[in-house]
Amino acid sequence: MTRSLRVGRRANVIRSGRRALIPSDATLRPMNEFATERNGVCYEIRVHGILGERLIAAFPGLVAQPDRGDTLLVGHLPDQAALHGVLAQVEALGLELVEVRRR
Fold it and tell me: Which CATH number fits domain 28-102: 1.10.357, 2.60.40, 3.30.70, 3.40.960?
């Protein structure tokens, strides 16, 4: 039985039936390595209050800056899933989200 292969346009992924086959020339890297590169989108996330060192440590890869009584968390995130992960962390820690801005 022969299956037809479709090539995914966006990520150069070959699809066969239901499974996606990763091309042999693909490079797999840890997620935190992507955050340091300029291929992601830079976000500015403002939370209410000045965060202490313990809370700042909950957001690796982001730089924390105090600003007018709030804390700005600034950094590059590789995709929307990473942004949602940061926002989920803000909620889980009981912090008040004031603003999210793309730079």
Answer: 3.30.70
